[in-house]
User: Fold this.
Amino acid sequence: MGTTQLETVPEPKYWHLKTVLSEALDQDFAVGEVLPNERELAARFGVARATLRQALEQLELEGRLQRRRGVGTTVAPPRVGVAVRDAQHGWPGEATDGWQLVNATETVPAAAIAKLLGTGSDQAVHTVRRTRVTQGQAVAAELLYVPAASVPGLSALDAPSGPARARAILRELGHLVLEGQDRSVELGSARADDAKELDRLPGAPVLLVTTRYFTAAGTAAVSVATYRADTCRLTFGDSGDVQITHDTAEPVAS
Assistant:
């Protein structure tokens, strides 16, 4: 990485520095290589350390860098492509796609989830937690909310808790006839429990994929999957149409 003095540019100096650093990462560094310390980098580029930190933070958010305690700042590997199933696929659990069952509990969901499910604001639902592992790395954490009415054959005696309970819920859910799904993707912030599973700090940027599953009776389940925004790029099937809306109307089942 050579010495580059940044001249006056119309864009913020840290943003221009981010572009210069990004090019240097492609040309001069290998994946996993440790960058020089902040003092050395700031001197090489003729910028204040505060400007350098802004650029490094942006590159970390974009998944180009990783900050590892006790190691320093290293060049991150390329983002992992994660396939998001299109509406032609079935219920969660029919295809594993690297998902691992963690637990199942009964909880009262947040008001926004209860609204999507069409349940009462104080009504508990089955909540299945799963994590998705790709190339040995946890890239997503999912909460699947299932009202009791969607799994009437579920027996608490057969599987009272844990992964076995989660498998039983998914099995019963699969007995229903799936008539459609809708899905939305938005930028969000990692909650504490999701951040822990994904090895991120609480509040780190994440991609939230919310999916509603429909039967003839209405909404049967809602999934909220939290993907690491720094290491993932989501890919969709050929029939995964993207719809852009600018209102608060509820989506229509596909």
